[in-house]
């Protein structure tokens, strides 16, 4: 029979092994686009537009189909390190955290291991050039990487940009911390009931409720399972095309 001390040691070893298993990185590859100042990364299939204005900056990436998940991964964060055991084009010991803001489409005219880098089932990041050059040497072009999804750290609160017209509201939800991506959302006007929203494309969520001229409350649940109710985050005098920042932020 184990003594209390040996049992404690065994449990500690098991805990350490479990922790190590939990942080094992996945393997993929990475290229870069957008120029040295990352201006070519603005816009993108997540709908974030100007990445500086929406809080994402220069350290972003377009995801291959295997990671993009038809847009549900928009806003997620990944820590990426060049696999120096497999490539001489790595910056030793360097890593970078990027936000998913775009989609890297497959190119079936090229083989997956020679130009069709984003073809399924490859896990590939087409990173902004500044982010890529943090971990890779320019001449390499494409590098093998180890990556993990990590928590997103954002400055300030979650933001809501309202687009559309009258009975069609398209709401872009940005600057989301914690798990980074939105799993579900609802909206309630000051004179209407709570109405569930559906994801239209990227990080844009839609509602067909007639909520113009009302103060708006949003309920948002992230892919990490955290829900925040942003009470009256949008005042009643809002106009289409305007962004409203909250004082609340997700942590997981």
UniProtKB/TrEMBL annotation:
GO terms for biological process: plant-type cell wall organization. One of its GO terms (cellular component) is membrane. It comes from the Eukaryota. It is found in: Secreted, Cell wall; Membrane. The keyword Membrane applies. It is a peripheral membrane protein. PANTHER family: EXPANSIN-A15. Belongs to the expansin family. Expansin A subfamily. Causes loosening and extension of plant cell walls by disrupting non-covalent bonding between cellulose microfibrils and matrix glucans. No enzymatic activity has been found. This is Expansin. It comes from Eragrostis curvula (weeping love grass). The lineage of its organism: Eukaryota, Viridiplantae, Streptophyta, Embryophyta, Tracheophyta.
